[in-house]
Amino acid sequence: MNDTQIEITSRSVDETIALGRKIAQLCQGGELIALIGQLGAGKTHLIKGIAQGLDVEQINDVTSPTFTLINEYPGRLYLVHIDAYRLENAQQLEQLGFDEYIDPDNVTVVEWADRVTQIIDEYDPITIRMHHDGPTQRKIQIQNPTPDITQALQNQKPKRLDS
Ligand SMILES: Nc1ncnc2c1ncn2[C@@H]1O[C@H](COP(=O)(O)OP(=O)(O)OP(=O)(O)O)[C@@H](O)[C@H]1O
Ligand SMILES: [Mg+2]
Protein backbone atom coordinates (compact mmCIF):
# COMPACT_ATOMS: atom_id res chain seq x y z
CA MET A 1 0.00 0.00 0.00
CA ASN A 2 1.27 3.48 -0.85
CA ASP A 3 0.60 6.70 1.06
CA THR A 4 -1.12 8.49 -1.79
CA GLN A 5 -4.59 9.80 -1.15
CA ILE A 6 -6.51 11.65 -3.82
CA GLU A 7 -9.61 13.63 -2.98
CA ILE A 8 -12.06 14.54 -5.68
CA THR A 9 -15.33 16.44 -5.59
CA SER A 10 -18.02 15.14 -7.90
CA ARG A 11 -20.68 17.75 -8.63
CA SER A 12 -23.07 15.52 -10.56
CA VAL A 13 -24.01 11.95 -11.36
CA ASP A 14 -22.24 12.36 -14.69
CA GLU A 15 -19.01 13.41 -13.01
CA THR A 16 -19.16 10.34 -10.79
CA ILE A 17 -19.70 8.07 -13.79
CA ALA A 18 -16.85 9.80 -15.64
CA LEU A 19 -14.54 9.22 -12.68
CA GLY A 20 -15.36 5.52 -12.60
CA ARG A 21 -14.78 5.31 -16.34
CA LYS A 22 -11.41 7.02 -16.06
CA ILE A 23 -10.22 4.79 -13.22
CA ALA A 24 -11.26 1.65 -15.09
CA GLN A 25 -9.60 2.76 -18.33
CA LEU A 26 -6.33 2.88 -16.42
CA CYS A 27 -6.72 -0.61 -14.98
CA GLN A 28 -4.43 -3.26 -16.41
CA GLY A 29 -5.97 -6.30 -14.76
CA GLY A 30 -5.50 -7.72 -11.29
CA GLU A 31 -6.77 -4.60 -9.52
CA LEU A 32 -8.97 -4.87 -6.47
CA ILE A 33 -11.18 -1.87 -5.76
CA ALA A 34 -12.71 -1.59 -2.29
CA LEU A 35 -15.74 0.65 -2.46
CA ILE A 36 -17.11 2.20 0.72
CA GLY A 37 -20.04 4.58 1.13
CA GLN A 38 -23.43 4.84 2.79
CA LEU A 39 -26.80 4.44 1.09
CA GLY A 40 -27.10 6.87 -1.79
CA ALA A 41 -23.43 7.84 -1.71
CA GLY A 42 -23.12 7.04 -5.43
CA LYS A 43 -21.50 3.60 -5.42
CA THR A 44 -23.75 2.24 -8.15
CA HIS A 45 -23.08 5.22 -10.40
CA LEU A 46 -19.33 4.85 -9.92
CA ILE A 47 -19.59 1.16 -10.83
CA LYS A 48 -21.58 2.08 -13.91
CA GLY A 49 -18.61 4.21 -14.96
CA ILE A 50 -16.17 1.42 -14.14
CA ALA A 51 -18.17 -0.92 -16.38
CA GLN A 52 -18.03 1.64 -19.18
CA GLY A 53 -14.28 2.02 -18.75
CA LEU A 54 -13.82 -1.74 -19.08
CA ASP A 55 -16.02 -1.86 -22.21
CA VAL A 56 -18.55 -4.05 -20.46
CA GLU A 57 -21.60 -4.12 -22.70
CA GLN A 58 -24.23 -5.29 -20.24
CA ILE A 59 -23.99 -2.16 -18.12
CA ASN A 60 -27.55 -2.37 -16.86
CA ASP A 61 -26.92 -5.89 -15.62
CA VAL A 62 -23.95 -4.63 -13.65
CA THR A 63 -25.95 -1.97 -11.86
CA SER A 64 -29.06 -4.06 -11.17
CA PRO A 65 -29.30 -6.01 -7.94
CA THR A 66 -28.97 -9.76 -8.39
CA PHE A 67 -29.37 -12.81 -6.19
CA THR A 68 -25.80 -13.93 -6.62
CA LEU A 69 -23.11 -12.55 -4.36
CA ILE A 70 -20.39 -12.50 -6.99
CA ASN A 71 -21.09 -11.49 -10.58
CA GLU A 72 -18.72 -11.48 -13.55
CA TYR A 73 -19.22 -9.35 -16.64
CA PRO A 74 -17.04 -9.72 -19.75
CA GLY A 75 -15.35 -6.67 -21.23
CA ARG A 76 -11.78 -5.60 -22.07
CA LEU A 77 -11.17 -7.30 -18.74
CA TYR A 78 -13.74 -9.11 -16.64
CA LEU A 79 -15.50 -6.90 -14.17
CA VAL A 80 -16.09 -8.94 -11.03
CA HIS A 81 -18.64 -7.32 -8.76
CA ILE A 82 -19.03 -8.48 -5.18
CA ASP A 83 -21.74 -7.08 -2.93
CA ALA A 84 -20.47 -7.55 0.61
CA TYR A 85 -23.68 -6.12 2.03
CA ARG A 86 -25.33 -9.45 1.43
CA LEU A 87 -22.64 -11.63 2.95
CA GLU A 88 -23.38 -13.16 6.31
CA ASN A 89 -19.85 -12.54 7.51
CA ALA A 90 -16.38 -11.85 6.20
CA GLN A 91 -15.41 -15.54 6.17
CA GLN A 92 -18.16 -16.25 3.67
CA LEU A 93 -16.13 -14.26 1.16
CA GLU A 94 -13.20 -16.65 1.54
CA GLN A 95 -15.54 -19.62 1.22
CA LEU A 96 -16.76 -18.22 -2.09
CA GLY A 97 -13.19 -18.45 -3.39
CA PHE A 98 -12.39 -14.77 -3.25
CA ASP A 99 -8.66 -15.28 -3.77
CA GLU A 100 -9.27 -16.81 -7.20
CA TYR A 101 -11.04 -13.70 -8.42
CA ILE A 102 -7.93 -11.60 -7.94
CA ASP A 103 -6.57 -12.40 -11.37
CA PRO A 104 -4.76 -10.53 -14.16
CA ASP A 105 -7.85 -10.92 -16.38
CA ASN A 106 -10.12 -9.26 -13.82
CA VAL A 107 -10.88 -5.99 -12.15
CA THR A 108 -12.63 -6.85 -8.90
CA VAL A 109 -14.89 -4.34 -7.19
CA VAL A 110 -16.10 -5.07 -3.66
CA GLU A 111 -19.04 -2.93 -2.65
CA TRP A 112 -19.56 -2.33 1.11
CA ALA A 113 -15.91 -3.31 1.47
CA ASP A 114 -15.78 -2.04 5.05
CA ARG A 115 -17.65 -5.21 6.02
CA VAL A 116 -14.84 -7.47 4.82
CA THR A 117 -11.67 -5.45 5.43
CA GLN A 118 -10.00 -8.30 7.29
CA ILE A 119 -10.15 -10.47 4.17
CA ILE A 120 -9.50 -7.98 1.39
CA ASP A 121 -6.79 -5.83 2.98
CA GLU A 122 -4.35 -8.66 2.28
CA TYR A 123 -4.78 -7.97 -1.43
CA ASP A 124 -3.65 -4.33 -1.28
CA PRO A 125 -6.91 -2.79 -2.49
CA ILE A 126 -7.40 0.59 -4.09
CA THR A 127 -9.87 1.98 -1.56
CA ILE A 128 -12.53 4.44 -2.71
CA ARG A 129 -14.65 6.18 -0.08
CA MET A 130 -17.69 8.20 -1.10
CA HIS A 131 -19.39 10.75 1.15
CA HIS A 132 -22.44 12.96 0.78
CA ASP A 133 -21.46 16.59 0.42
CA GLY A 134 -24.73 18.24 -0.56
CA PRO A 135 -27.68 17.15 -2.72
CA THR A 136 -25.68 16.74 -5.93
CA GLN A 137 -22.16 16.77 -4.56
CA ARG A 138 -20.02 13.88 -3.34
CA LYS A 139 -16.53 13.79 -1.86
CA ILE A 140 -14.59 10.85 -3.20
CA GLN A 141 -11.32 9.75 -1.59
CA ILE A 142 -9.04 7.31 -3.33
CA GLN A 143 -6.44 5.60 -1.18
CA ASN A 144 -3.59 3.50 -2.52
CA PRO A 145 -4.20 4.34 -6.21
CA THR A 146 -1.93 2.87 -8.87
CA PRO A 147 0.72 5.28 -10.25
CA ASP A 148 -1.26 5.62 -13.51
CA ILE A 149 -4.42 6.56 -11.67
CA THR A 150 -2.54 9.02 -9.47
CA GLN A 151 -0.98 10.69 -12.46
CA ALA A 152 -4.20 10.92 -14.45
CA LEU A 153 -6.32 12.28 -11.65
CA GLN A 154 -3.71 14.76 -10.51
CA ASN A 155 -3.22 16.00 -14.06
CA GLN A 156 -6.93 16.44 -14.37
CA LYS A 157 -6.93 18.79 -11.42
CA PRO A 158 -3.52 20.47 -11.49
CA LYS A 159 -4.58 22.93 -8.79
CA ARG A 160 -4.47 20.11 -6.28
CA LEU A 161 -0.71 20.07 -6.53
CA ASP A 162 -0.49 23.64 -5.27
CA SER A 163 -2.92 23.25 -2.43
N1 LIG B 1 -22.44 13.70 -7.61
C1 LIG B 1 -23.23 12.62 -7.51
N2 LIG B 1 -22.72 11.40 -7.76
C2 LIG B 1 -23.48 10.29 -7.64
N3 LIG B 1 -24.79 10.29 -7.29
C3 LIG B 1 -25.34 11.49 -7.02
C4 LIG B 1 -24.59 12.68 -7.12
N4 LIG B 1 -25.41 13.71 -6.82
C5 LIG B 1 -26.59 13.18 -6.54
N5 LIG B 1 -26.59 11.85 -6.67
C6 LIG B 1 -27.76 10.99 -6.40
O1 LIG B 1 -27.42 10.15 -5.31
C7 LIG B 1 -27.95 8.85 -5.52
C8 LIG B 1 -26.79 7.89 -5.64
O2 LIG B 1 -27.33 6.63 -5.91
P1 LIG B 1 -26.48 5.31 -6.07
O3 LIG B 1 -27.48 4.26 -6.34
O4 LIG B 1 -25.35 5.49 -7.01
O5 LIG B 1 -25.91 5.18 -4.59
P2 LIG B 1 -25.41 3.86 -3.86
O6 LIG B 1 -24.22 4.28 -3.08
O7 LIG B 1 -25.26 2.76 -4.83
O8 LIG B 1 -26.63 3.58 -2.87
P3 LIG B 1 -27.15 2.15 -2.28
O9 LIG B 1 -26.20 1.79 -1.19
O10 LIG B 1 -28.49 2.51 -1.75
O11 LIG B 1 -27.18 1.18 -3.40
C9 LIG B 1 -28.77 8.93 -6.81
O12 LIG B 1 -30.09 9.22 -6.47
C10 LIG B 1 -28.12 10.09 -7.55
O13 LIG B 1 -29.02 10.73 -8.41
MG1 LIG C 1 -26.08 0.87 -5.05
Description:
The mean pLDDT is 94. By secondary structure, the protein is an alpha/beta fold. The chain contains 8 helices and 7 strands. Helices cover 35% and strands 25% of the residues. α1 (13-25) crosses α2 (43-53). The chain has one domain: Rossmann fold (3-Layer(aba) Sandwich), CATH 3.40.50. The chain has a 7-stranded mixed beta sheet, covered by helices on one side. The radius of gyration is 15 Å and the shape is globular. The structure holds adenosine-5'-triphosphate and magnesium ion. Adenosine-5'-triphosphate is lined by residues 10, 12-13, 15-16, 37, 39-45, 136-138.
What characteristics describe this protein?
alpha/beta; single chain; seven-stranded mixed β-sheet; binds adenosine-5'-triphosphate; 8 helices; 163 residues; Rossmann fold; 25% strand; binds magnesium ion
How do you describe this structure in short?
By secondary structure, this protein is an alpha/beta fold. The protein is 35% helix and 25% strand.
Write the layout of secondary structure elements.
Blueprint: E1 5-10, H1 13-25, E2 32-37, H2 43-53, H3 59-63, E3 70-73, E4 78-83, H4 90-95, H5 98-101, E5 106-111, H6 117-120, E6 126-132, E7 138-143, H7 147-156, H8 159-162
Parallel strand pairs: 2-5, 2-6, 4-5
Antiparallel strand pairs: 1-7, 3-4, 6-7
Helix pairs in contact: 1-2
The structure holds adenosine-5'-triphosphate and magnesium ion (MG).
The site of magnesium ion has 2 residues, from helix 2.
